TrEMBL record:
Pfam families: MoaE. The lineage of its organism: Bacteria, Bacillati, Actinomycetota, Actinomycetes, Streptosporangiales. Its EC number is 2.8.1.12. The keyword Transferase applies. One of its GO terms (molecular function) is molybdopterin synthase activity. It comes from Actinocorallia herbida. Belongs to the MoaE family. It catalyses: 2 [molybdopterin-synthase sulfur-carrier protein]-C-terminal-Gly-aminoethanethioate + cyclic pyranopterin phosphate + H2O = molybdopterin + 2 [molybdopterin-synthase sulfur-carrier protein]-C-terminal Gly-Gly + 2 H(+). Converts molybdopterin precursor Z into molybdopterin. This requires the incorporation of two sulfur atoms into precursor Z to generate a dithiolene group. The sulfur is provided by MoaD. Pathway: Cofactor biosynthesis; molybdopterin biosynthesis. Keywords: Molybdenum cofactor biosynthesis, Transferase. CDD domains: MoaE. It is an enzyme of class 2 (transferase). This is Molybdopterin synthase catalytic subunit 1. Heterotetramer of 2 MoaD subunits and 2 MoaE subunits. Also stable as homodimer. The enzyme changes between these two forms during catalysis.
Amino acid sequence: MTVIRLADIRETPLSVDEVVAAVQDAAAGGTAFFAGTVRDHDRAQDGTEPKAVTALSYSAHPSALDRLREVMEKVAADFPVEALAAVHRVGDLAIGDHAVIVAASAPHRAEAFEACRRLIDDLKHEVPIWKHQHFTDGSSEWVGAC
C-alpha cells in the first residue's frame, strides 16, 4: 500500500475525520494531524498591528497538486511513516473554516509529530497556493504571492 494515502486541493469543505482516517494503519503506533483554520485577524505583511479579517480566498497554481505530491514524497523519504495525507482548500472561505489539514502516522509518536510538522511547513513554503485576505477596513492583501 502506498504511503501517500490522500493528496488533494479542493473547493469543498475539508474534514478532519477524512484525513485522519486516511492515515490509519495497523503498523502505526502514533498519528499526528494539523488543521489550519481561518482566523478573524492577521498581522498585515507590512508589519503593522493585527487587522480584523472578514473573509479570505485561496488560489492555487495549476501545478499545486503535483508540488503537494512532491512535498509528500520527500517527507515519506525522510521519515519512517506508515501513511501521509494532506488536503488544502481553495476558493472563498469564512472565519472558522478549515483551510488545510495534514496528517502522518508512524510506528512511534515522535516520528508522527516530526513528519506532520515537516509536511505542513513544507506545504506552506513550497506549494504554490496563495491567500487573499479581506479586512474590516475595506483593504485586502495577497499573502504568499510573488
